[in-house]
Amino acid sequence: MSNRGIKSDPLYPAGRKDRAESRISRMGGQVHEEERMRQYELVVVLPSEEDAFRKGKEAVAADLALVAAADIKEEDMGDRPLAYSIKKKERGHYILYTLGLAPNAVTPLERAFKLNTSVLKYLVVKVEA
Fold first, then answer.
1. Residue 37 confidence (pLDDT)
2. How far apart are CA 81 and CA 35, in angstroms?
3. DSSP 3-state helix, strand, coil percentages of the chain (rounded to 5)?
4. Where does the pLDDT of residue 15 fall: very low under 50, low under 70, confident under 90, or very high at 90 and above?
5. How many C-beta atoms surround the C-beta of residue 97 within 10 A?
6. What is the CATH number of domain 36-126?
């Protein structure tokens, strides 16, 4: 049987074990060490179901590691009702991260969150010193 009519998924090429790494590297997630780190706050809303929450939290941690986030502080804000339904979910689990990132790492991180189906919503804000 031939695979002529079937195209491989460009987001997850065959042979890649770490999908998050391939996503970020294709999005220009190369962070130069000489860039000055800035402080950011990141709020992520994940599904409140236990399995989906665990998978989403692991995916967020992998994405943060791949963009070389430093000084990561995590604050679990708990399960809360959403103001409006997102992806047919009425509740979400909020997590606040305070972290250091190079300025050129924010865009690849946001793109990774857009592609991550476990992340319902996210917001990245630069902290003024």
1. 87
2. 39
3. 30, 35, 35
4. very low
5. 19
6. 3.30.70.60
Q: What does the alpha-carbon distance between residue 47 and residue 128 come to, in Å, rounded to a whole number?
A: 30
- Return the domain boundaries, the chain: 36-126
pLDDT tens sequence across 62-92: 999 999 889 999 999 999 999 999 999 999 9
Is residue 74 within 8 A of residue 97, CB to CB? The reply is yes
Q: Does residue 39 contact residue 76 with C-beta atoms inside 8 Å?
A: no
The residue type at 36: R
Amino acid type, 98: T
How far is it between the farthest Cα atoms of the chain?
61
Q: Which of 13, 36, 33, 37 is nearest to 25 (CA)?
A: 13
Q: Pick from 112, 105, 109: which is nearest to 11 by CA?
A: 112
Q: State both tokens at 55.
A: 């998978």
Name the pLDDT band for 12 (thresholds 50, 70, 90).
Answer: very low
Quote the tokens at residue 72: 């990561």
